[in-house]
């Protein structure tokens, strides 16, 4: 029989590996008191998307395994891909003695919702760009770099619905961050 409990953490970061489309991953680290303890990141379930999506740091130990608590503390790292598990603003890491809110949406970024049609992004929201055929880039709007150098390749994603954040200008969404995706049939 397993015993589950919240576990303290010392560090929490969201990283995005250099792959397309971006796939943010929550990485949490700390020290566990029992070397046999299995540490996992467990997202809470929601009916409606919250402002910050709570993700608990949970440890489990089988009753037959492990040393008594306090015997042999060891470091741990746990990871979780968080596409589709982010709130409108970010994530909240929940440990045994503290909570940490992490903003993933830049304060001045706009949120866009739309679908991919013929390898182009067609937002339905906000109304100011609804129905336009836009291109997505990771390049910042203030960079001297051409937006094509960071363009996201949407080939093969026709029918998918994407929620992204970024800055709109001249047919591009700059500094794009993929917040959620739902695959459509192709």
- How far the N terminus sits from the C terminus, by CA atoms, comes to 44 Å
Shape: elongated
Average predicted local confidence, pLDDT: 84
Q: Largest sheet, if any?
A: 5 strands, mixed
Oligomeric organization of the protein chains: single chain
Count of runs of 4 or more consecutive helical residues = 0
**Residues in β-strands, percent:** over 45%
Helix content: under 10%
Which structural class do the helices and strands define? mainly beta
Order of helices and strands: EEEEEEEEEEEEE
Number of strands: 13
**What low-confidence regions span 5 or more consecutive residues with pLDDT below 50?**
none
Which radius of gyration do the C-alpha atoms yield? Answer: 20 Å
């Amino acid at each position: 029989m397993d015993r589950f409990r919240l576990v303290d953490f010392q560090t929490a970061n969201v990283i995005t590996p250099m792959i397309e489309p971006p796939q943010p991953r929550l990485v949490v680290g700390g020290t566990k008191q029992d070397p046999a303890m299995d540490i996992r990141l467990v997202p809470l379930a929601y009916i409606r998307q919250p402002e910050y999506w709570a993700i608990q740091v949970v440890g489990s130990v089988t009753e037959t395994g492990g040393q008594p608590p306090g015997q042999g503390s060891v470091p741990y790292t746990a990871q979780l891909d968080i596409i589709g598990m982010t709130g409108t603003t970010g994530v909240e890491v929940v440990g045994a003695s503290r909570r940490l809110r992490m903003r993933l949406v830049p304060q001045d970024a706009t949120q866009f919702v739309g679908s991919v049609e013929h390898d182009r992004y067609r937002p339905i929201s906000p109304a100011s760009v609804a129905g336009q055929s836009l291109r997505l880039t990771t390049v910042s709007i203030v960079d001297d770099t051409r937006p094509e150098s960071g363009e996201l390749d949407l080939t093969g994603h026709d029918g998918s619905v994407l929620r992204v954040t970024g800055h709109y200008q001249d047919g591009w969404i700059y500094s794009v961050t993929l917040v959620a995706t739902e695959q459509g049939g192709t």
